[in-house]
Amino acid sequence: MDRKIKKIVFLTGAGMSAESGFKTFRGQDGLWEEFPVEQVASHDGWLADPELVNRFYNGLRKKLFAAQPNEGHRLVAALEADYDVTVVTQNVDNLHEKAGSSQVIHLHGELTKVCSSRDQFDERYVRELTEDDCDVAPGEKAGDGSLLRPFIVFFGEAVPQISVAAEAVSKADLFVIIGTSLNVYPAAGLVHYVTPGTPIYLIDPDTVSTAGIPNVTHLQTGGSEGMRRLMEILKKA
């Protein structure tokens, strides 16, 4: 890299949290093998059986509270000592925050929070749950009288944070993608907001199609090893 790097933007997906033992939604042994996505992560599924949906996320929340950030998460956070770092994540976990990242944009919601089912983005009724009190009881209501639901963007729902993420990506001097197949939209489209000439690093052990994406270097490995390699590259920049 022959340009001065000041702002680094990360886009992270399910592969980022895999090393933490937190089950990914997709892929081998994913959560969708236990429950059809239509049942637990769609608006229709919520309307059909909100108790089932809340029970599913109650269980997932307990697993998240038991999970810890991996080295990849910690290395992303450590870069804040020398760079302006923003993390855009498709993940609903809080492992980036646990590792110390201070600027995290959650595209698909946050598992540790619950909200109104009338308007999930009404901040007055968004509530953070704690490890000691992380279950939503059957019939439990939000402050507006609607059923309490997970603060998760279900499939088919709007992703309001995508415009915030796109603005951050457009200002990046370096864009790093970790653990995502670039198949899930609208997140996958963020790569098109990168300023021409900006270097892009893709960290993923799988073969990922990067056709039509310029300046991409694929580090074909897991998140932690890929971050170790990226740290070495940045030291030499």
Walkthrough of the structure:
The structure is a single chain. The protein is an alpha/beta fold. It contains 8 helices and 9 strands. The chain is elongated, with a radius of gyration of 18 Å. Mean pLDDT is 90; it is low at 26-32.
How do you describe this structure in short?
With 237 residues, this protein is an alpha/beta fold.
Write the layout of secondary structure elements.
Layout: E1 7-12, H1 14-18, H2 37-40, H3 43-48, H4 50-66, H5 71-78, E2 84-89, H6 95-99, E3 104-106, E4 109-116, E5 127-128, E6 148-152, H7 162-170, E7 174-178, E8 200-203, E9 216-219, H8 223-236
Parallel strand pairs: 1-2, 1-7, 2-3, 7-8, 8-9
Antiparallel strand pairs: 4-5, 4-6
Helix pairs in contact: 5-8
Keywords, please?
three-stranded antiparallel beta sheet, six-stranded parallel beta sheet, 237 residues, single chain, alpha/beta
Quantity of strands, as a count:
9
The main pleated sheet reads as: 6 strands, parallel
Distance between the termini: 6 Å
Shape, per Cα inertia axes? elongated
Query: Into which percentage range does the β-strand content fall?
Result: 15-25%
- Uncertain residue segments: 26-32
Radius of gyration: 18 Å
Strand order of the largest sheet: 3-2-1-7-8-9
Give the helices and strands as they follow along the chain. EHHHHHEHEEEEHEEEH
Helical segment count:
8
Mean pLDDT: 90
* Alpha-beta content class: alpha/beta
In which range does the helix fraction lie? 25-40%
